[in-house]
């Protein structure tokens, strides 16, 4: 039986990202106003209007590029991680087979080696749990993916892991569920 599931996770902006976005908007409006006002009444006023429009469009384009979503697609034991920018462009970050995973667990407190390629594709939200999967990728070498799967994607991934890692992951998930029940 084929297994297919997809999930889209919106990346929450950090305070620094929000401030950067705000400053980009302010700067583009200020640049547009300066372009327009400097050439107001001169024979080059059309150039000023064009430059002001370009400044506003550039500011809009830059601020919307900060709107990022990650899509996790599970298909028959294989996970694709895509980055979607401003709902306009999509880029495949990595694809891995769950059967090739060498380590899996909660990302919190997990140390990543300096020689490892890191693919960070999380929601950046404190209430959600981030997980990591380590594996050897044919072009990236030793790779660690940090992601925020929901329960359905997580269960499919865990079922597809190698036996020893699956047992460890199931024990970890049981521990997380127990912690969640204790908090309620």
Quick overview of this protein structure:
About 40% of the residues lie in helices and about 30% in strands.
Structural description of this entry:
This protein has 184 residues and is of the alpha+beta class. It folds into two domains: 15-64; 96-183, no CATH class. Helix content is 41%, strand content 31%. The chain has four helices and eight strands. Strands 1-2-3-4 form a four-stranded antiparallel sheet, covered by helices on one side. A four-stranded mixed sheet has the order 5-7-8-6. β7 (131-137) and β8 form a beta hairpin. α1 (15-38) runs antiparallel to α2. The longest helix has 24 residues, at 15-38. The radius of gyration is 22 Å and the shape is elongated. The mean pLDDT is 90.
Structural class: alpha+beta
Q: State the helical fraction.
A: 40-55%
Number of domains: 2
Name the strands of the widest sheet in spatial order: 1-2-3-4
The oligomeric state is: single chain
Q: How many strands in all?
A: 8
| Unreliable segments of 5+ consecutive residues | none
* Run of helices and strands: EHHEEEEEEEHH
Shape: elongated
**CA distance, first residue to last residue:** 37 Å
Largest sheet: 4 strands, antiparallel
Mean pLDDT: 90
| Structural Rg | 22 Å
Number of helices: 4
Kindly estimate the percentage of residues that lie in beta strands according to DSSP.
25-35%
């Amino acid at each position: 039986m084929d297994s297919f599931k997809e999930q889209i996770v919106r990346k929450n902006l950090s305070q620094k990202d929000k401030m950067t976005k705000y400053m980009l908007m302010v700067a583009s409006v200020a640049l547009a106003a300066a372009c327009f006002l400097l050439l107001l009444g001169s024979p080059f006023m059309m150039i000023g209007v064009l430059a002001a429009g370009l400044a506003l469009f550039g500011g809009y384009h830059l601020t919307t590029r900060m709107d990022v979503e990650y899509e996790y697609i599970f298909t028959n034991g294989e996970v694709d991680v895509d980055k979607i920018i401003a709902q306009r462009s999509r880029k495949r970050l990595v694809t891995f087979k769950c059967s090739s995973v060498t380590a899996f667990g909660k990302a919190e407190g997990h140390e990543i080696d300096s020689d490892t390629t890191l693919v960070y594709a999380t929601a950046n939200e404190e209430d959600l749990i981030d997980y990591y999967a380590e594996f050897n990728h044919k072009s990236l070498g030793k790779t660690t993916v940090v992601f925020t799967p929901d329960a359905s994607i997580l269960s499919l991934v865990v079922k597809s892991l190698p036996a020893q890692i699956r047992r460890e992951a199931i024990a970890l998930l049981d521990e997380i569920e127990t912690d969640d029940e204790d908090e309620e």
